[in-house]
Amino acid sequence: MISILRSIWFTFLHAFHKRETQGYPEKKPYLPPRYRGRIILSRDPDGKERCVACNLCAAACPVDCIALQAANDYNERRYPLFFRINFSRCIFCGFCEEACPTYAIQLIPDFEMGEYDRQNMVYEKENLLISGEGKYHGYNFYKVAGVDMGVKGIGKGENEEPPVDLKDLIH
Amino acid sequence: MKYVFIIAGVLLIPLTIAAGLIWVERRLLALFQDRYGPNRVGPFGLIQVLADVVKIFFKEDWIPPFADKAVFVMAPGILIATILLTFAVIPFTDNFLVLDSNIGILFFLGNSSLGVYSIVLGGWASNSKYSLLGSIRASAQMLTYEVFMGLSLVGVVMMADSFSLREIVEAQQGGWFFIPQFVAFLVFFIAGIAETHRTPFDIPEAEGELVAGYHSEYSGMKFGMFFVGEYLGVTLISSLIVTLFFGGWLGPAFLPPAFWFFLKTGFFICLFILIRASLPRPRYDQLMELGWKVLLPIVLLNILITGAILIYNSSL
Ligand code: SF4
Ligand code: SF4
């Protein structure tokens, strides 16, 4: 009996508590920088596309919503000919970002992607590619990679030894 | 002519209040749960009621093929009719009432018993097991609680020496009855919640186990009518509590009597909603046990003691 009255009283006291509701469309909530929202493709500090079309993100994606095709430019540098993400299937798990060796694909704190037409949820490369570096600044994959793509020569990188001539070791 | 106005008023006021309660209940529940509730449509979300009504009117009004059609259609009407009829004997003020019946309380008790038919027939005609289970529970619960509801009023009737609700209010000029009849007030309040089958006594429509109880098969405005009936019931019980125990329209003279009546009724409606917000549903056998083993002896004792005191006082 007492506990019934007690719970009625405490419920009544809630009338004077602060309301938990977030007035979403008027008041935007704070989203931390690592919030997993809309996906973008970022560029190098020198403005080149970071994506090397390695297909790792497409392989990691649990719902298979990434499609891309690799191509080589005049410099023999790989880039995606098209890059397509179907956001109506994406579950924003962030696996693609984790799988990417070049920090090209990134999830950003934006989730307002409502569309009236389902087809509009399929984002092409021109919708995904931004002109900046996204969350990771100053990273250039070819500065640490083992291939020469005009960014640095083989063995010229920081903490990188010059290549060893294997035939030399035989003598 | 005056009677036409009064009848129209008595019909319209409870219906308007019942419709408004949809909004009031959602806002108040939200308040008790640290939310906002409907606040989009119109100022403070007031137009929400209208939006709800429009929506419910445009819903498909479907009668299941296995249902007993005539009874199925009639059932929600019975509920609303019996409750609206009862409002006829409620004195809003000393001259704003339809029928100053000298059996007012009996009229109310009779009507609320008839209201059970709505639920029993609704569940029966739906021809589905959950509806039937719900209406079985409802009839058992309402039969039980009607007993204490009637008995708890005996004390009031003895003190006022009348069954007429108007005379009961006038007998409270010396002091409201909830002080000498506090036990009866509590029992009547509990029975009132059970009578309108509101949470925590809503086991006839316990959605966790029975889908929606007796109105599982209802849709569209027929479903809406069960809900309006529930809110009408809440308004009715609140106004009866006010009339029987809290001096009806009586109050300090600086405000008109009707205002006092509505103020007090509003308070009890809010109390109904507060109780809904705070208490869980009991088990079915607990509900029955509380009724027969606790409330029944209490009201009987109350009648005995009230009677003894009255006889003692009159013999002085
Ligand atoms: S976030 Fe997850 S589901 Fe979405 S594209 Fe990346 S890997 Fe696929
Ligand atoms: S976005 Fe990253 S993981 Fe995906 S293909 Fe391009 S480089 Fe590879």
What is this structure's SSE topology?
The complex is a heterodimer of chains A (171) and B (316).
Chain A: H1 2-13, E1 39-41, H2 56-60, E2 66-72, E3 78-86, H3 95-99, E4 105-107, E5 122-123, H4 125-128, H5 141-144, H6 166-170
Antiparallel strand pairs in A: 1-4, 2-3, 3-5
Chain B: H1 2-32, H2 48-58, H3 69-86, H4 104-126, H5 129-160, H6 165-171, H7 182-195, H8 207-210, H9 220-245, H10 257-278, H11 284-315
Helix pairs in contact in B: 1-9, 1-10, 3-4, 3-9, 4-5, 5-6, 5-7, 5-11, 7-9, 9-10
Can you give a write-up of this model?
The complex is a heterodimer of chains A (171) and B (316). Chain A is of the alpha+beta class. Chain A has a domain at 32-142: Alpha-Beta Plaits (2-Layer Sandwich). Chain A is built from six helices and five strands; from the N terminus they run H-E-H-E-E-H-E-E-H-H-H. With 316 residues, chain B is mainly alpha-helical. Chain B has one domain. Chain B is built from eleven helices and no strands. Chain B has helices at 2-32, 48-58, 69-86, 104-126, 129-160, 165-171, 182-195, 207-210, 220-245, 257-278, 284-315. In chain B, helix 7 (182-195) packs antiparallel against helix 9 (220-245). The mean pLDDT of chain B is 82. At the A-B interface, helix 1 of A face helix 10 of B. Bound molecules: iron/sulfur cluster (2 copies). The site of one iron/sulfur cluster has 13 residues of chain A, from helix 2.
Structural key phrases:
heterodimer, A: about 170 residues, alpha+beta, Alpha-Beta Plaits, three-stranded antiparallel sheet, two-stranded antiparallel sheet, about 20% helix, elongated, B: about 325 residues, mainly alpha, 11 helices, globular, binds iron/sulfur cluster
Concise description?
By secondary structure, chain A is of the alpha+beta class. Chain A has a domain at 32-142: Alpha-Beta Plaits, CATH 3.30.70.3270.
Cα end-to-end separation of chain A? 96 Å
Number of helices of chain A: 6
For the largest beta-sheet of chain B, the strand count, sense and barrel status come to:
none
Strand order of the largest sheet of chain A: 2-3-5
Q: Beta-strand percentage of chain B?
A: under 5%
Note the total helix count of chain B: 11
CA-CA gap between termini of chain B:
49 Å
